[in-house]
Amino acid sequence: MSSPALQPRSLLPPTLLRPDTAAAAAVLSRHAQNPSAFLALNRDTQHFRVPGFDGLIAFRPAGRRALVQLGGVFAAPCDQDTLLAAFLRSAAKQRRRVVTVQLTEQDTALYARHGFTVNQLGANYARTLSGFSLSGKKHMQLRNKVSRARRAGVQVAEVGVDLPGSPALEDQLDALDAVWLRSKGRHVKELSFLVGERGGPAASLRRLFVARSAEGSVLAYVSFSPAYGRQAGWLHDLSRRDPAAPPGALEVVVVSAVERFRAEGAGYLHFGFTPFTGLAAEHDVPGGSRLAARIVRLLADHGSAVYPAADQLAYKHKWGPDVIQPEYIAFAGGVRPGAVWSLLRLTNAA
Question: CA 34 to CA 230: how far, in whole Å?
Fold first, then answer.
C-alpha cells in the first residue's frame, strides 16, 4: 500500500508567532548562512542584540563561567564585528568566557580576529534536491526498506496539512519520545541545544511528518526546520522511531517529505551537524589549539559514549549527501577545560 498523496505546503494557514520570535526568525531569514541557524529559536536559547543593528547572537549560559554561542553572528557582514565585540564585552562584565559551536568555514576569520582559538569539531551534511533519486545499486537497501514499510501499510502525513494536530496526537508523540529514549539505554540522556525540539515558540515554522500504521498509531516522525541562506531548504532535525515499527518506517517519512519539498522547489535537504566527523588537516584554522585537535580526534576514535557519531554518520551517508562542509568550535581567550566541561553539560553529553 502506498502512502496517500501529499498536498502542497501552500495549503498551510499563516503562522502565528510571538513578536520576539517573529523578529528573530526574520533576522535569520535575512542574514543566516548556517543551515542549523533555526536552532537559535529553541525555547531556552537567548538572543543578544544591539540597538540600531539588524542582527543577533544566540547563546545559553553554561555553568557559572561560560556562555555557549550557537552558529556565529547572524547579521550582515559589515555588522558582525560590532555585534561580536559587544557580546564579548557583555560576557566579560559577567565574568564569563564565550565558547562558540557550529561555526561555518566562512565564520572562522571573524572569530580569529577577535582572539578566539578555532578548531574543527565536525561536519555538516546535505543533499541537493534537484537531482534527488534513490536509483542505482548504492541505494538498493534504502529502496527495499521504503518498499517494506509501504507494503506493511505504513502511511505518511504532514501534521497540519494532511493530518490535523490534536491533543491525542501530541500524547502519541510524547509516548514515542519516551519509548525511543528508553530504547537507547537507561544511562542515555537526550541531547539538547544542538538539536531541535517539538513545540516551543517557533513550532509553527517547523514541519512535522509522521509515519502511522493502518490503525492510526504513530510509528515514527521527523521534524524539519527551515534552512536559510545560499543553500536554502529544509533541515532534517529531530527524528524518532518506535523500535517495534516495521523496517523502513523512518526512511519512508524522509522520502515522502523530500517528494513534497522537491515539488515546492526547495534546493537542499540538510542532515545537520555531526561532531567528530569529516576531520581533515585541510580544514585546520591557523592558530588552532593542538590540545583541542587531539581531544576532538580522540573523541572521533573512541567517543561513542559521548556522542554516537558513527551511527549518525551512517544514517546521513545512506542518503547520498553531496555537500559536506566543516564546522568549528571556538574558544575566546584559548581552550580551557572548564569551558569544555560546561559545553558537555549544556548539551547533556556529560
Answer: 9
Eight-class DSSP state of 64: T
Q: Which residue, among 136, 169, 127, 138, has the nearest Cα to 257 in the 3D structure?
A: 127
Instruction: List the beta bridge partners of residue 115.
Output: none
Is the pTM higher than 0.85? The answer reads yes
| Cα–Cα distance measured from residue 289 to residue 275, given in angstroms and rounded to the nearest whole number | 17
Cβ proximity of 171 and 216 under 8 Å = no
Q: Is 252 helix (H, G, I), strand (E, B) or coil?
A: helix
Answer for the pair 212, 155: CB distance below 8 angstroms, yes or no: yes
**Which residue has cell 545499486?**
137
CA–CA dist 213, 19 (Å, integer): 38
Amino acid sitting at position 131:
G
Task: Name residue, grid cell 517519512.
Answer: 253
Strand order across the 46-48 sheet: 46-48, 55-62, 66-75, 97-104, 323-332, 116-128, 268-275, 233-241, 218-227, 207-212, 155-158
DSSP structure string for 111-140: HHHTTEEEEEEEEEEEEESTT----SGGGH
Q: Which residues pair with 156 in a beta bridge?
A: 211
d(CA 33, CA 107): 10
For 108-165, write each residue's pLDDT tens digit: 999 999 999 999 999 999 999 998 988 888 889 999 999 999 999 999 999 999 999 9
Report the C-alpha gap between 308 and 203 in whole angstroms.
27
Helix (H) or strand (E) holding 292: helix 290-302
Q: Are strands 155-158 and 116-128 parallel, antiparallel or unpaired?
A: unpaired
Indicate left, alpha or beta for 5 from its phi (over 0: left) and psi (-120 to 50: alpha).
beta
**12: pLDDT strictly greater than 50:** no
Find the farthest-apart pair of alpha carbons in the chain and give their distance in angstroms, rounded: 62
The three cell numbers of residue 271 are 542532515
